[in-house]
Amino acid sequence: MIRAVCVYLLYKRIRLFEALKNVDVTFNYGLDGYMKTKPCIALFLFTLICSISAADSKIEQAVRDQDAQWSKAAESRDVEKLLSFYADDAVVLPAHAAIANTKDSIRNIFQKLLSIPGVALSWKATKVTAAGSGDLAYSTGAYEMSAPDDSGKSSIDRGKYVAVWKKQADGNWKVAVDTWNTDLPLPAPSDKK
Hints:
- This protein has two domains: 53 residues; 124 residues, Nuclear Transport Factor 2, Chain: A.
- Helix content is 45%, strand content 29%.
- It contains four helices and five strands.
- A five-stranded mixed beta sheet has the order 1-5-4-3-2, covered by helices on one side.
């Protein structure tokens, strides 16, 4: 849609430029080279901005799709599938735990988490932004995790996350940095001194 609008506006600009050229020739208004160049520069910049915007939209959609598939892997509790969305040099910064910067340490986090009986984990990106370079993007959103507490009653944790995505040599997008934290309040301090 954006591309179609850009092409239409480009067509209109070209027609305007041709009309100005014809007016100058017909009525000899003496439009100098500078005045003839300004519309061309504006047209070039407009076209450039439209093409960048269209490329960003494509990247954002690709990352949004990957993010959704990544969440489905977590929902299915498939640790290896979930792990496949991380780049080889990924860094995970989990809430209330040490940094994980190897595939094995990332695997350990999710094996422990997803092995909790009755656990359910999912998330949804609410915003995806692509870097101008076209090789990085980030997604932010909300997650929900539920699991039975000690009494068997379902306990729900809601929070937010940020994932930095990096375009790989094969063109696929993988998570380079991942972090999340809960919206739950901190526990009240104990009265013991």
